Amino acid sequence: MTRPFHHAEVSRRALLAGMAGSAAFLAMPSSVLAQVAPANPTFRHGVASGDPDATSIVLWTRVTAEGPVEGTWELSATPDFAKVLKTGPFKTDADRDHTVKVLAEGLAPGGMYYYRFRMGDAVSPLGRARTLPDGRLDRLGIALASCSNYAFGYFNAYDAIARDADVDFVLHTGDYIYEYGGKDGWGADIAQKIGRVQAPLHEIVSLTDYRTRHAQYKTDAGAQAMHANHSLLACWDDHESANNPWTGGAQNHQPDTEGDWATRRAASIRAYFEWMPVREPEWLKARGRTRMQFWRGYSFGDLATLHTIETRHTARAKQIEYVDYAETITDAASAERFKKEVLGAPNRPILSAECEADLSAALSRSVEQGQPWRIIGCPMVIGRVEVPDVVKLGVVPDPSARLAAAKSREELAKLSADPAVAIAWKGKYNLPDYTDAWGGYPWARERLYDLSRKAGAGDLVFLSGDSHSFWANRLADDAGRSAGIEFGTAGISSPGDFVDSGFGDTTARALDKVYAEHIPEVTWTDNMHQGYVRVEFTREQGVATFVAVDTVLTPDYRTMVLRRVPFARQGKEVAFT
């Protein structure tokens, strides 16, 4: 079995030592990985690479300075820079928040490169970048990451990804930052205890706010290590702007106090493109695109295609809220009508027509070229997670008497905010767990599955984020035909929803168990841990390894493998084995 990349195979330990400026960075045993942030006052936010194709890649850094500055970037095949292969100037200023982003071109396919930035006597940390391979490829390793919330803890899983020798690229499916703030904001109590209070302290709304929050996240040592070691493939989800956005607003945007939604969204997107190693629209082969049309296609030789999708700002219909329909759902028949006529109403899209067209073309091209794997970078879980009757299964108490005793709509709404009441009610009627995920858009999900079948690619592998839980899901369309499989990742630091909702460990674990045993598409799930998923592909089979960290409350941590899930191609389908 050949490794996919051959240029300058220097160990990750050497790179990390160079990045930190000291071999002591790796003095601890591999099971205890304490983060040590390198001190570099000029380039204090580290370096990053990403959005590669076969012959070019984006290189990124940020200069701590005032006023316009100039410098150079360098790229080499070896970390000692004995021979500089590419170099060029850069300029930056306050208009771009002193971020630097260059497109290094004319590179070899499947190349491993090292890069750095210079400004005067100051030299940035060392970074390592990969271009996409071309031709025959026998193995690909992707780390799936999502949901890094600074307030909830250290990004230890990023650090673990940096040190994972079986990772070739990192796919980040969104919630790279969170917009929350304030002394009573989500996670504020933990942030105070561990010294990770968000900056600015308030919820971020303006361009300056979003820039400040991105800057803070890039000071985390685990984030710096991951970005320095692995090239990033990225898409966004909701918290890069505000919780649960759609084309006309967001759940966490109040126009009366926070201004125009379009202005806030534009600020969040501008800051994202400044602070992330992603291509500007003018660097894309497809002309006429905007920053908002943020989806990408990547081809890994003859082995795989990976396509990310944009699900928030270019097409999404407004979410359905259960509270608006709860009084009309009184029995199984009315619940089915709600699922079919309200949630399943036609023309409630998630993907734009342009994204669908690009995805369809990429899948068709992959099938025609005979690639065995077609991977979707998906911001949200797409599997059917319809809550089982957790009351009958003995996991949570029956709330019927409490609901019946409610004397007003306000009292009923307060009761429905109780997580135990909400999950019991959804379980009674077998409703989707969250209407903001694909479960709230069944028409759009079926449209995506139909698009895939028409392209000859009913064998997709979805790599998904958002849920703060690990998932291994088998997917099917409305007719029961296989639509592929899905691996979902827990948060880098964001807590699992059952745990965060106040369920004790025993109940949270029981909910995981009944979800896997009683939801047809769910094979396994875990909401108890933070971490990432390493997904490895070979010619006919693959394996997903669910890697957890034992804590995010301190930078000293251990990793553990929770589960390995093998999968394989079976004719024109893909399935767990």
TrEMBL record:
<keyword id="KW-0732">Signal</keyword>
<protein>
    <submittedName>
        <fullName>Alkaline phosphatase D family protein</fullName>
    </submittedName>
</protein>
<dbReference type="InterPro" id="IPR038607">
    <property type="entry name" value="PhoD-like_sf"/>
</dbReference>
<dbReference type="InterPro" id="IPR052900">
    <property type="entry name" value="Phospholipid_Metab_Enz"/>
</dbReference>
<dbReference type="InterPro" id="IPR006311">
    <property type="entry name" value="TAT_signal"/>
</dbReference>
<dbReference type="InterPro" id="IPR029052">
    <property type="entry name" value="Metallo-depent_PP-like"/>
</dbReference>
<dbReference type="Pfam" id="PF09423">
    <property type="entry name" value="PhoD"/>
</dbReference>
<dbReference type="InterPro" id="IPR032093">
    <property type="entry name" value="PhoD_N"/>
</dbReference>
<feature type="domain" description="Phospholipase D N-terminal">
    <location>
        <begin position="45"/>
        <end position="131"/>
    </location>
</feature>
<dbReference type="Pfam" id="PF16655">
    <property type="entry name" value="PhoD_N"/>
</dbReference>
<feature type="domain" description="PhoD-like phosphatase metallophosphatase">
    <location>
        <begin position="143"/>
        <end position="541"/>
    </location>
</feature>
<feature type="signal peptide">
    <location>
        <begin position="1"/>
        <end position="34"/>
    </location>
</feature>
<dbReference type="InterPro" id="IPR018946">
    <property type="entry name" value="PhoD-like_MPP"/>
</dbReference>
